[in-house]
Amino acid sequence: MNRFLAPLITCAMVLGLMALFGPQAAAAAGCKVDHTVTGQWQGGFRAAVKVTNLGDPVTGWTLKFTMPDAGQKLVQGWNGTWTQSGSEVFAAGVDHNRTLATGASVDLGMTGTFTGANPKPTAFTLNGVACTGSAEEPPPVPGTGTPVDINGKLQVCGVHLCNQYGRPVQLRGMSTHGIQWFSKCYNAASMDALAQDWKSDLLRVAMYVQEGGYETDPAGFTSRVNGLVDMAEAGGMYAMIDFHTLTPGDPNHNLDRAKTFFASVAARNADKKNVIYEIANEPNGVSWTAIKSYAEQVIPVIRAADPDAVIVVGTRGWSSLGVSDGSDESEVVDNPVRADNIMYAFHFCAASHKDPYRATLSRAASRLPLFVTEFGTVSATGGGAMDRASTTAWLDLLDQLKIGYANWTYSDADESSAAFRPGTCNGGDYSSSGVLTESGALLKSRISTPDSFPTG
Ligand code: IDC
User: Fold this and answer.
1) Is 430 exposed, middle or buried (0-12, 13-18, 19+ CB in 10 A)?
2) pLDDT digits (tens, 9 = 90+) for 292-335
3) CA-408 nearest atom, ligand 1
4) 131 and 31 Cβ atoms separated by less than 8 Å
5) Distance CA 388, CA 100 (A)
6) Which protein residues are within 6 Å of ligand 1, measured from CB?
7) What is the CATH number of domain 147-447?
8) Looking at per-residue confidence, does 31 or 242 come out higher?
9) Which H/E stretch holds residue 67?
10) Which of 179, 204, 320, 408 to mutate to test the pocket of ligand 1 (most atoms within 8 A of CB)?
């Protein structure tokens, strides 16, 4: 249907209903609209629109409002018949919500696009009557809401990651694949699925530096990372900004790039509660002293812009606390990075790394603040069969020690570590069980259980 004709038809339908039901249908003596932007990303937003009828009962209604600027466009609406004509948007009741008793509400929702700022719409009317009822949002109830709502600003306390109440928390979430390859997987629908269905606490944003990543377009990748931080924030999730060094393995090779990148993202995101910085993904073929030296040069750059965010430092041997290089955690315990509010990364691939690695983690957990910023359910290549028994043993151990984790990867890469089947990101369905791989199904079942974050 021509979208500009649609409002006319909608209005005609309402007039028809008014004729059918007499004065009742036109009645609405007053109404209240609670319009809440529930998600926002680059160029797009989602809004919940709760309409309460404060007047006489109505049978058949049309909500009308004005978009605040010409750049704002309706994309999709639900629980009503939605149309847009110029800057005016109409939502008409459908069969199951056509009748609104006095005091009754209907929950509508929409997604839209915008350019520039994104102010709220104005001039809400219900059947032509202005909705002037108070639109105050109720105060948040402590202990409810998203992971970021509940936990707020994070800090390291002792060997734990703690929330705004100073209580230990375990964040459970997913890592993107390389955003230079899989940007199509990170959009409103996939972030919604991660926040709502997976109930994920965390999105790790893997920004490779080499392999077609940051070094090829510093401004472009910085902006993409910021966009993903905003999307995570809109979903109430923490965002871990991963400077994904891999080859070469010496992070000092990228020292200047790291300083430039972190100065920029830390300044831009300093006021946000949801950002964690991970300064080097997997140092390899390099000594702990070289990694420590890198960390002690990059951390002050972040602190200058964002003094109190948590920072995670990669460790020797692909972030294995040195184990994959024949060492162990003692090199870090004996010679820690000189900085506060930091954690150390520990990575594993469940099919390759088993008891000796678990023993190291268990020992180290009482000495060092640890975060499993990346792990796979498969082998160290990212492929091969999923090892369910080893993955389960790992996740049980991490739960018991309250160590946070991000699984590699929330993507549809054609490799068994990916959570989605190949081709999933070409469509819009990230929620049904059919799009999940074996690894994705296991991780979703683990991550979506209640967090029970401590408050007060
Ligand atoms: C792998 C990807 C694969 C890519 C390769 C090289 O899964 O598609 O071709 O990197 O870029 C890590 C690394 C992570 C690896 C992953 C699996 O941090 O970049 O991703 N892995 O090999 N450490 C251990 C495993």
Assistant:
1) buried
2) 999 999 999 999 999 999 999 999 999 999 999 999 999 999 99
3) 16
4) yes
5) 51
6) 211, 246, 281-282, 318, 347, 349, 374, 376, 380-382, 408, 413, 415, 417
7) 3.20.20.80
8) 242
9) none
10) 408
Q: Which residues pair with 77 in a beta bridge?
A: 110
**Strands across the sheet containing 122-126:** 81-85, 88-92, 62-66, 122-126, 129-130
Measured in Å, residue 377 CA sits from the centre of ligand 1 at 12
Q: Domain boundaries in the chain? A: 5-130, 147-447
Q: Ligand 1 atom 3: the closest Cα is on which residue? A: 382
The two domains 5-130 and 147-447 share their CATH topology (first three levels equal): no
Cis omega (within 30 of 0) for bond into 369: no
In whole angstroms, how far apart are CA 268 and each of 103, 116, 121, 265, 434?
44, 17, 27, 5, 38
The answer, yes or no, to whether residue 163 has pLDDT greater than 60, is yes
* CATH class, 5-130 region: mainly beta
* CA 76 – CA 83 distance, rounded (Å): 9
User: Active-site residues: which are they?
Assistant: 282, 374
Amino acid of residue 325: D
C-alpha 101 chain-centroid distance: 38
Using the mean position of ligand 1's atoms as its centre, give its distance from the Cα of residue 408 in Å. Answer: 8
Ligand 1 center to 371 CA (angstroms)? 18
The token pair that represents 58 in the structure block: 């109505």
